[in-house]
């Protein structure tokens, strides 16, 4: 068994199987596990997926939201144990793989049309 095969088999054990199909442009709610003292709680983070990267165990999504007038982006590692759950709230109709142009827009200009041909 080569080293790459060993690495792939270890990574396959860590992959989550309950993840929904996530596309760029979707509005998602990510439940992030936060440790406070000895306890854990789940904090929701809701926003638009503006980028997807990599594949397999290294797959990440960048989620953007506007909080108190300031744009906040977080990068989530999909197969991380810190991610409790991901729920797709709405599908977005976009024509780009990366939506970095939303950073320059404010208010109603950041709206994305809803897509109805893909199920939630």
TrEMBL record:
Q: Which Gene3D superfamilies match?
A: 2.30.30.790
Cite the InterPro entries for this sequence: Ribosomal_bL19, Ribosomal_bL19_CS, Ribosomal_bL19_sf, Translation_prot_SH3-like_sf
Q: Give a GO biological-process term.
A: translation
Name the UniProt key words of this record, in alphabetical order: Ribonucleoprotein, Ribosomal protein
Pfam families in the record, alphabetically?
Ribosomal_L19
Note whether Ribonucleoprotein occurs among the keywords.
Answer: yes
**In terms of domain of life, where is this protein from?**
Bacteria
Q: Does the keyword Zinc apply?
A: no
Q: Which SUPFAM superfamilies match?
A: Translation proteins SH3-like domain
* A single MF term (Gene Ontology): structural constituent of ribosome
Alphabetical GO CC annotations of the entry are:
cytosolic large ribosomal subunit
Function as written in the Swiss-Prot or TrEMBL entry: This protein is located at the 30S-50S ribosomal subunit interface and may play a role in the structure and function of the aminoacyl-tRNA binding site.
Q: Which family does it belong to?
A: Belongs to the bacterial ribosomal protein bL19 family.
**HAMAP family per record:** Ribosomal_bL19 (MF_00402)
The entry's protein name is: Large ribosomal subunit protein bL19
- The gene from which this protein is expressed is rplS
């Amino acid at each position: 068994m080569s080293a790459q095969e060993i690495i792939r088999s270890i990574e396959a054990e860590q992959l989550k199987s309950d993840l929904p199909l996530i596309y760029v442009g979707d509005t998602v709610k990510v439940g992030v596990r936060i440790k406070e003292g000895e306890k854990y709680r789940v904090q929701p983070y809701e926003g638009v997926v503006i980028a997807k990267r990599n594949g397999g165990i290294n797959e990440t999504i960048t989620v953007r939201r506007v909080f108190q007038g300031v744009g906040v982006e977080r990068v989530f590692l999909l197969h991380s144990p810190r991610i409790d759950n991901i729920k797709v709230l709405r599908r977005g109709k976009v024509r780009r793989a990366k939506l970095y142009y939303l950073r320059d827009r404010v208010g109603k200009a950041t709206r994305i049309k809803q897509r109805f041909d893909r199920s939630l």
